[in-house]
């Protein structure tokens, strides 16, 4: 009788381990999710850094005229009154 119980328990244990290691929701899924989490954390870090840079730009634009002038000159090609703009073109 004890041998039958031990045999059944071993069979159940083997079945559970088989399902745990081979089923799509077992260890393989755990590994896939772990990798996906690592990739997402990496992406989140990049986005957090980008957000910090953008927030810094917003603060600079709100607080300083130098920042606004720099952007106007660089992005819009604006010049101050009385200035002469020279552009050299290489051929």
TrEMBL record:
Cellular compartments per GO CC: cell division site; cell septum; plasma membrane
Periplasmic side: 23-91
Keyword annotations of the record: Cell cycle, Cell division, Cell inner membrane, Cell membrane, Coiled coil, Membrane, Transmembrane, Transmembrane helix
Membrane topology summary: Single-pass type II membrane protein
Pfam families: DivIC
InterPro entries: Cell_div_FtsB, FtsL/DivIC
Subcellular location(s) per record: Cell inner membrane
Recorded coiled-coil stretches: 30-57
Primary location: membrane
GO biological process assignments: FtsZ-dependent cytokinesis
Membrane topology (Cytoplasmic): 1-4
Family the UniProt entry places it in: Belongs to the FtsB family.
Record's function text: Essential cell division protein. May link together the upstream cell division proteins, which are predominantly cytoplasmic, with the downstream cell division proteins, which are predominantly periplasmic.
Subunit description: Part of a complex composed of FtsB, FtsL and FtsQ.
PANTHER family noted in UniProt: CELL DIVISION PROTEIN FTSB
Listed name of the protein: Cell division protein FtsB
Species, as recorded: Candidatus Kentrum sp. SD
């Amino acid at each position: 009788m004890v041998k039958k119980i031990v045999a059944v328990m071993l069979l159940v244990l083997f079945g559970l381990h088989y399902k745990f290691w081979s089923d799509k929701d077992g260890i393989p899924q755990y590994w896939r999710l772990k990798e996906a989490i690592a990739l997402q954390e990496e992406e989140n870090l990049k986005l957090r850094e980008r957000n910090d840079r953008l927030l810094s730009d917003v603060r600079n634009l709100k607080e300083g005229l130098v920042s606004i002038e720099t952007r106007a000159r660089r992005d819009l090609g604006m010049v101050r009154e009385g200035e002469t703009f020279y552009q050299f073109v290489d051929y």
